[in-house]
Amino acid sequence: MSESAGPTDKPTQESLARAAAAAAKKGPPPVHLWNPPFCGDLDMRIARDGSWWYLGTPIGREALVRLFASILRKDGDRYYLVTPVEKVGIVVEDAPFVAVDFRVENPGPDQTIVFATNVGDETAAGPENPIRVAHDPATGEPSPYVHVRRGLEALIDRKSFYRLAEIGERARQDGREWFGVRSGGMFFPLIAADELPD
Questions:
Q1: Got the DSSP string for the chain?
Q2: What is the pLDDT of residues 47-100, one digit of tens each?
Q3: Which pTM does this prediction carry?
Q4: CA distance 146 to 152
């Protein structure tokens, strides 16, 4: 690994939790401002369903998962847990969060769709938090995402995606007709209108 190691004690789930809890006492941890030394990779991963795993075992405590989620940062294509004194790499199988529900505020042309994630975040879709749809190159299966904070996205779960379809509309964008949703003054295309089932 080209990044130099920092403290001699290898970070653990417990040491990271202590540091994150201390940092969170003053509000949301400002992980974007911290530049601690890289301390190597931790055997921690976030599965596609949003579950967190440490040393091959699921982390069952919701409060602990939310604490770790608060110190998660994406630098380039990699994900890290960051505290004021250490930075460790973790594996994220897809998106780090899952959007498990949403509500529509001020329904109509000026509406805002506010998503709730599995770790307690809320994100209002709009110019700063766009909705996008990626397609599996092999199967063509769509995977919808919404931006949550600082490059971190949430995979929109299936039931929420179906609910979005219920409030969708058609609109022209980039010379093509799309079916999508409006939020925060923007239209977000979900699927080309000519690909909609009859």
A1: --SPP-SSSPP-HHHHHHHHHHHHTTSS--GGG--PPEEEEEEEEE-TTS-EEETTEE---HHHHHHHHHTEEEETTEEEEE-SS-EEEEEESS-SEEEEEEEEES-STT-EEEEEETTS-EEE-SSSS-EEEEE-TTT--EEEEEEEETTEEEEEPHHHHHHHHHT-EEEEETTEEEEEEEETTEEEEEEEGGGS--
A2: 999 999 999 999 999 999 999 999 999 999 999 999 988 999 999 999 999 999
A3: 0.88
A4: 9
Q: Which two tokens stand for residue 72?
A: 């998660």
β-pairing, 169-173 vs 176-183, is antiparallel
The edge-to-edge listing of strands for the beta sheet with 38-46 is: 57-58, 52-54, 38-46, 87-92, 78-82, 72-75
